[in-house]
């Protein structure tokens, strides 16, 4: 029996867990303010952050998911718990912080789907190596541990290498995701030797490395010790992926056309990661897994918010193979 056969969770997702308030349409090209009133569509409260965005996307793709994060004892924390329960995500490690508020974001979305965010980091800022250590039993039950967003988890980033190394010793594979500015390469680099999958966005990768050539960025991560899958998400230009340190070839994964009008690009990067890891969990070659990620992102942008446009594994796979 393979080690994975004894694990009843496919992916535990640890990190940022957010209540999102969606406001659209907002004319982001002009100043918003000055005491004036402007009319918008019905304002929606939903969930965001990597725990909810990627977790819900992976559930839609048929993956067994657990959430590991901190929320506040407030209405937003209850919103997140309700949504996690509806999506049948294991909430064993979704803890309530005694003093900090739930992380919240107001997403201002313009008519083209572009967005700006007003964000309160909240309880996930207290996530640290001790939190992961408390839940090492969950890691031991999981095939993958996905941690994010680096750049928005200050308490964990100080001990990131130690925390990921300890989690890796439970036998799970590690994926890492960035957010905000992406944090410092000085903090990320020591952790990369424990990481099996790392595909930051171009802006975050460029901030970390000081480089603006995606291929040079991949090389820099290899030099820092990342031996597993590494790549860069390039927005509308797709994604580049490198399978391993011993395989120098780069795969170019183009964007998959959206299966409907683009409504909102929120969560597209999280959706890509959900599809990529799902493909890897299903034993797909990297190129096919990357294509599934691109198709998941294409579905995501057809709905308002990070999860409304997501589709089933069968529908998403058909789109990936079209």
Q: Which descriptors would you attach to this protein?
A:
34% helix, UDP-N-acetylmuramoyl-L-alanine:D-glutamate ligase, nine-stranded mixed sheet, four-stranded mixed sheet, globular, 322 residues
Query: What is the multimeric organization of the chains shown?
Result: single chain
Q: What is the top-level CATH class?
A: Alpha Beta
Number of domains: 1
Radius of gyration from CA coordinates: 19 Å
Report how far apart the termini are: 35 Å
Number of strands: 13
Secondary structure class reads alpha/beta
Q: Name the helicity range.
A: 25-40%
Q: What share of residues are in beta strands?
A: 15-25%
Describe the largest sheet: 9 strands, mixed
Unreliable stretches: none
Number of helices: 12
Under the CATH scheme, the architecture is 3-Layer(aba) Sandwich
Global outline: globular
Give me the strand/helix succession.
EEEHEHEEEHHEHHEHEHHEEEHHH
CATH homology superfamily: Ribokinase
């Amino acid at each position: 029996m393979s080690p994975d056969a004894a694990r009843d969770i496919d992916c535990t997702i640890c990190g940022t867990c957010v209540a999102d308030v969606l406001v659209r349409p907002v004319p982001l090209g002009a100043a918003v303010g000055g005491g004036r009133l402007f009319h918008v569509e019905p304002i929606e409260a939903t969930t965001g952050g990597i725990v909810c965005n990627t977790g819900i996307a992976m559930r839609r793709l048929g993956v067994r998911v657990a959430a590991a994060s901190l929320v506040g004892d407030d209405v937003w924390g209850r919103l997140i718990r309700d949504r996690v329960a509806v999506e049948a995500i294991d909430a064993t490690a979704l803890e309530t912080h005694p003093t900090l508020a739930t992380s919240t974001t107001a997403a201002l979305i313009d008519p083209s789907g572009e967005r700006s965010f007003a964000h309160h980091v909240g309880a996930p800022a207290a996530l640290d190596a001790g939190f992961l250590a408390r839940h090492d039993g969950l890691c031991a039950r999981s095939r993958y541990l996905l941690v994010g967003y680096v750049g928005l988890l200050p308490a964990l980033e100080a001990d990131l290498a130690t925390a990921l190394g300890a989690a890796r010793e439970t036998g799970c594979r590690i994926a890492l995701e960035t957010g905000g500015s992406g944090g410092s390469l000085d903090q990320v680099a020591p952790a990369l030797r424990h990481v099996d999958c790392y595909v930051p966005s171009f802006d975050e990768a460029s901030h970390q490395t000081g480089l603006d050539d995606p291929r040079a960025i991949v090389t820099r991560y290899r030099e820092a010790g990342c031996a597993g899958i590494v790549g860069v998400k390039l927005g509308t230009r797709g994604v580049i992926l490198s399978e391993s340190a011993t395989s120098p070839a780069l795969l170019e994964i183009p964007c998959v056309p959206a299966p409907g009008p683009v409504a909102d690009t929120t969560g597209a990067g999280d959706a890509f990661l959900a599809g990529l890891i799902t493909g890897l969990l299903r034993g797909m070659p990297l190129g096919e897994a990357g294509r599934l990620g691109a198709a998941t992102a294409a579905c995501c942008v057809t709905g308002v918010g990070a999860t409304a446009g997501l589709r089933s594994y069968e529908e998403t796979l058909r789109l990936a193979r079209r």
